[in-house]
Structure formats: C-alpha cells, structure tokens
Design brief:
- The complex is a heterodimer of chains A (210) and B (407).
- With 210 residues, chain A is of the alpha/beta class.
- Chain A has helices at residues 40-47, 70-80, 96-107, 114-120, 136-148, 166-183, and strands spanning 2-12, 15-18, 22-24, 29-33, 55-60, 63-64, 81-84, 154-158, 186-191, 203-205.
- With 407 residues, chain B is α+β, with helices and mostly antiparallel strands.
- Helix content of chain B is 54%, strand content 15%.
- In chain B, strands 1, 3, 4, 5, 6, 7, 8, 9, 10, 12 and 13 form an 11-stranded mixed beta sheet that branches.
- In chain B, a hairpin with a 2-residue loop joins β3 and β4.
- The two termini of chain B are 26 Å apart.
- The chains are: A alpha/beta (210), B alpha+beta (407).
C-alpha cells in the first residue's frame, strides 16, 4: 500500500535527513516519534506528495508519487491522501460543511459520506457553522473530517494533538484510529507528544531518542 | 462547491473591502455610461429632428442660435425677418420646399409655433385625435404637451409672450385645441402648433374679428396685404448644387442669415467634445485607481491566504485552479462593478430627467440601454483580469510544504 524507498533529503548540504525505508500494508498504523527539528514534518511532507525528495521514491497503491506531474499529483493527493495538521486550518470564509465539499470538489468526488463523517466525529450539529465559532477540539475534528472527506487510502497526521488538552488529545487519536480502521487506510501519525505513545504499538523514532 | 462559489465566499468574507472596490469601479464606469448614453441620445435626437431640413434662414445673429431655436426649439430666436424677403427666397430655383415659422410665444413653457401643414409633413406627423388647425387660434398639441398639461380637444388657453414660462399673457384671444398629435419621439412632442396667422393676430393691437373666421394658409405663405414678419424659414434644397450656392447667396444679402443644421450641430459637438474628453479622462483615472485598488486588495489578502491556498493544494487543488481562483475574484469584483456602474449611470440620468421636465435634458430616456454598455462590462472584465494577474501568479507558485511548515 505505502512504500518509501531510499529517501534522501536535505535543506542544506551538510545537514542530511536520515529517512528510514517504510513499508505499510492496508489498515496498518505507524507512529513516528521525534523531537522538534528531527525532520518529522519533512518525512510527512515527502510521504504526502508535498515535497519532492532528492532521491528515492514513494509508492502509494502502486503509483509512484513523484513520477506524477504537477496537476496529476495534486489530483492523486486529493483522492488518496488525507492530511491533518497541527493546527486545524479550516478555511475561514467557508462553513464546516463547505470545507468538506471543497475537498470533494477538488478531487471530483460526490461527498455523499460527508454527513456520516461529521456525525461520527460528533460535529454534525456544527455543519453550518463558521470556523470562528468552533472550539479548538471541534476545529481539529473538522480538519479530520475534511482530510477523510474523499475516503483516502493514506491518512497522514502531523502533530494532531499538540495544541489540545489531554481529553481532546486522547479523543482525536481515538477518532483517527477508528476512522482509519473504518476506511481500511494506512495511518501515520508524526508527533513528539508522549500522550500518543500508548495508543499505537507500531512505532519508530527518528533523530535520536524521543 | 465550485470555483465561482469559492471565490465569491472569499469576497463576501470581507464585505467592506469588496464593497469599496466595487463602488469605486462602479463610479468610474457610471460616468462613462452617462456620457455614452447622453451622447448617443443627443446625437440621434439631433439628427432625427433635423431630418429633411437642409438650411434654416432667419435674422442675422448666431447661426447656432438660429438652428437651436428653429429646429430644436431650445434657444431664443434671433429675431424676425420681413415676409417679403422670405417670399422672394421661396421663388429661388434652388429651393424645393420652404416652411415659414413664427416663434416667440409659449404656454406654460411649451412653445407655440406658427407654421403650416408642411411642417407636420416634414416629420410625417399624423393627428391622433381631432383635426389639424383650420382657423386662426386653432392649435394642435404635441403628444407630450397634451399629456403633461392634461388638455383635450375643445379646451382653451391663453398664450404668453416670450418663450419662458412666466412671461406676460396675451389675454385678448384664447387658443382652441382642435387636435392632438400622435407620439412622435421627436421635437414635435413638446410643441404647440398653429398657423402663422394665429401668431400674427395675437400680437396685433387692433383686432379685426372678421379675419378670425377665415381659413388659414395650409401651405406656403399666408396671403396678406399688410407688412408682416416671420421668424425663420426651413428650407429643402432642390439639388446638391444648392448646398454650395444658396447659403452664400442668402448670407450676402444684408437682412438674412442662412445656417446649415448639420454643420452647426457638428460644430456644437466639437465644442462640447472638449468637455466630454475631460470627463472621460476623469472617468478613466477613477477606473485605473479602482483597478489598482483591486490589485492591492488581492495582493494583501494573498499574504494572509497563502496558508489557505496551501491547504487547498493538499485537498487536491492544482496550481492552475488556484490561479483561476484568484483571477475569478478580480473578475467577479469588476463585473459587479460594471453592473452597478451601469445602473448608477442610468439612475443618474433618470434623476436628471425628473428634475428637468422641459428643455433639452427632458428628451433623454434613462431606460434605453445601448450595445456599447456591453463593452463597459468587457472593459471591466479586462481590468479585473489585469489587476489579478500578479496575485494569481503568486498563488500559482505557492510552495505548499514551505507554507505549511511556516505556520
């Protein structure tokens, strides 16, 4: 399902990121732990098709990500990869529902499952709300719903719990796991948050001990 | 959700900014709209009213004034001419048709024109109700005069001397309305038409009531033994040669002046052209500033929106779609600006017409839309595209990973 091979990347010549090879099957989950500056986000960006590595390849469902050209890669990403960021980044001019519909629009999906998704995440009653009326936890759940709106094969989460309190953090991780299992999707969470550790058994640590 | 709706949502998220940009552009385009609508209507009205009139002859003075008073009935007449001179001219072989006019009176601001049936035939005017004048003091009202003043067949009124509405009245003999013209869409709508004899007899000091019962002249000049005057003559040439010879021949005679409507009107437009150019320039400056305003608004909002754009990319938007997203914002702004501008322009003309129910402006219509106004929308779209090109290009080049990592 997801294969990363021989990935090399550096922002500066003398500072190379050591990126391990990854092979994940459908429904598998992985926690990548590492301190700030260890290159966690860089890995996620490379896996998500947002940042082209200097060497190596990423295969999702048999397709080489960086073998795709500009617009095709964008479309592929919209269809197959759901990305969740540390901050929710809900598009403020749009309502919760419209944020999901936008994701559907860009990848050409119909968005029939949007309402189920919102109700699974407990935010169906907020579907007409604007982002500035949501709490932090609600906003993060909206961003999860948006990342899942196109039923992705791969879910990538970058520090999804960093700005949340304990209760919300546990909730978000639980929801991510549940949804990933439901879609039978690969779930990769990148974090330095120790609270997440107990939830996912399959872990790797990069850039020294976390 | 689609691109148009997405751009629209971003625009209405900033209503004040968006509103200001639309208003500024609308203002510039409204000025252009007013200019082209007025210019078009004046020009077509001027040509329509002067149709079939090759030359106007009257007393010496300003030729433009002679044309404005005798053809368009918007200025004061230059004075009167002796009827013997006029009749001598009518026998000239270069003259095909000659229509005498006696001007100088009004009723409530509507001008009373003494003439003959030829004047009606010039515009192919038909009587809608009643009949044409037959006796002195019979009048036929233009359609608008009848409706505005609420007068009908058989009603009487007393004319006033002069052509403004508050001059002294000729109280001796009232006019009787015998007919009302059909709506013509030209200068006749605002005129009260009667025979030359009526105009003469109103101004006579002694009243010979015997004459009042005789029929008036329907064509040519009235027959009279007395020394009479007319105000002006509308002339049709017999052949193209007349255009060269007749004005020179008439102007060389001391008492008369000849003026060509087409020449004087193009001279008038030339004079007005300077003012029109000035206002046009002002409008273009406003439009350019509006374009700059849109550019700055888009460019500034882009700084805040780089993150949103990067998020859209992660959701599957291509860089081309982001480019279109920004250009659409510019285009929506300017198309709205154009529509609002055109409406403001027409509203302005409407108000102008409402406040001037007589005179030159009152003949304008606010509800006539021109094909040129579609061009205004096209220009506006061009302004929108140009103003949004640089911001859109910058959106196109958004580096997603860098943008998302920055937070």
């Amino acid at each position: 399902m997801l294969i990363a091979k021989n990935i090399e990347f550096s922002y500066q010549k003398d500072q190379k990121f050591n990126i391990p090879d990854l092979t994940l099957k459908e429904g598998e989950q992985l926690l990548i732990l590492g301190q700030s500056g260890s290159g966690k986000t860089t890995i996620l960006n490379i896996l998500g098709g947002l940042l082209k590595p200097h060497q190596g390849e990423v295969f999702i469902n048999g397709t080489s990500l960086y073998g795709l050209s500009g617009a095709a890669l964008d479309k592929f990403r919209g269809n197959n990869i759901g990305i969740i960021f540390q901050k929710p980044h809900i598009l403020a001019p749009l309502t919760v529902e419209e944020n999901l519909k936008l994701a559907n629009f860009f990848s050409g999906k119909d968005g029939r499952k949007n309402e189920n998704l919102l109700s699974d995440l407990g935010i169906l009653h907020k579907r007409k709300a604007k982002v500035n009326t949501l709490s932090e936890g609600e906003a993060q759940r909206v961003s999860i719903a948006r990342a899942l709106a196109n039923s992705p094969k791969v879910i990538l989460a970058d520090e999804p719990t960093a700005s949340l309190d304990d209760v919300n953090a546990a909730n978000v991780v639980k929801l991510l796991k549940e949804q990933a299992e439901k879609f039978n999707a690969v779930l990769i969470i990148v974090t330095h948050d120790q609270r997440v550790k107990d939830h996912i058994a399959n872990q790797i640590t990069i850039g020294g001990e976390a | 959700m689609n691109m148009l709706k997405l751009s629209w949502k971003y625009l209405i998220a900033k209503p004040l900014n968006t509103g200001l940009n639309i208003l500024l552009l609308a203002l510039g385009l409204a000025i252009i709209t007013v200019l082209i609508v007025i210019q078009d209507q004046f020009e077509s009205k001027m040509t329509r009213d002067a149709q079939g009139i090759d030359l106007v002859v009257g007393a010496k003075g300003s030729p433009l004034q002679l044309i404005l008073s005798s053809v368009y009935h918007i200025d004061f007449p230059t004075g009167n001419i002796d009827m013997n001179d006029a009749m001598a001219l009518s026998r000239n072989r270069l003259v095909k048709n000659i229509i005498p006019m006696g001007l100088g009176d009004n009723y409530q601001g509507y001008r009373i024109v003494g003439t003959n049936y030829d004047y009606l035939d010039l515009y192919n005017a038909q009587v809608q109700e009643g009949s044409k004048w037959d006796k002195p003091f019979d009048v036929v009202l233009g359609f608008e005069v009848a409706t505005k003043l609420g007068l009908g067949i058989g009603d009487n009124f007393v004319g006033s001397h002069g052509i403004g509405s508050s001059s002294h009245e000729h109280d001796e003999h009232p006019y009787t309305i015998t007919g009302i013209l059909q709506p013509m869409g030209n200068v006749l709508d605002k005129l009260i038409l009667t025979s030359i004899e009526s105009v003469w007899y109103t101004h006579d000091d002694d009243h010979d009531h015997g004459k009042f019962e005789e029929s008036v002249a329907k064509t040519g000049f009235p027959e009279t033994d007395e020394d009479r005057e007319v105000t002006s003559l509308l002339i049709q040439y017999r052949n193209p040669m007349a255009a060269v010879q007749l004005p020179r021949y008439i102007n060389s005679r001391s008492a008369l002046q000849a003026a060509s409507p087409s020449f004087e009107i193009s001279r008038l437009f030339e004079l007005l052209g300077v003012g029109v150019k000035l206002i046009q320039g002002l409008a273009i400056v406003i439009i350019v500033i509006a374009g700059l305003g849109i550019f700055i608004a888009l460019f500034n909002s882009l700084k805040e929106r780089k993150y949103d754009l990067a998020v859209m990319r992660t959701l599957g938007a291509s860089s081309g779609q982001l480019f279109i997203h920004i250009v659409l914002e510019g285009v929506i702004l300017t198309v709205l600006g154009a529509i609002v501008g055109i409406l403001i322009g027409h509203l302005f003309i409407g108000i102008l017409v409402m406040q001037n129910d007589q005179g030159a402006i009152s003949t304008l219509s606010a509800s006539v839309f021109l094909v040129e106004e579609l061009w205004i929308i096209a220009y506006a779209v061009a302004v929108g595209i140009i103003a949004s090109l640089i911001p859109a290009w910058s959106a196109y080049q958004t580096d997603i990973a860098k943008q998302l990592t920055k937070s």
